[in-house]
Write a structure and sequence with these properties.
This protein is mostly helical. It has 2 helices and 2 strands; from the N terminus they run ββαα. Strands 1-2 form a two-stranded antiparallel sheet.
Length: 73
């Protein structure tokens, strides 16, 4: 299956026996989506939209931080 995360789409459970990893293309796509979402959050006109978007930004941020190279901050 290559350098992608294995998961069971019917149970949405990530396999724990495979270490976390992400290919460069997937990382690039995720960082691009994260960047666009941050811009959308920062430009939101109302507080409710800003809070909802911020929650998603934080979730994606946690995913990205999980795959940072060792020693990166």
């Amino acid at each position: 299956m290559g350098d992608v995360i294995q998961f069971d789409p019917f149970t949405s459970i990530v396999r724990d026996d495979v270490p976390p990893h992400m290919d460069d293309f997937g990382r690039g796509l995720l960082i691009g989506a994260f960047s666009d979402l941050v811009k959308l959050r920062d430009g939101a006109a109302d507080e409710d939209s800003r809070h909802k978007t911020d929650a998603i930004v934080k979730q994606i941020g946690r995913v990205l931080s999980r795959y940072e190279p060792e020693g990166a901050a």
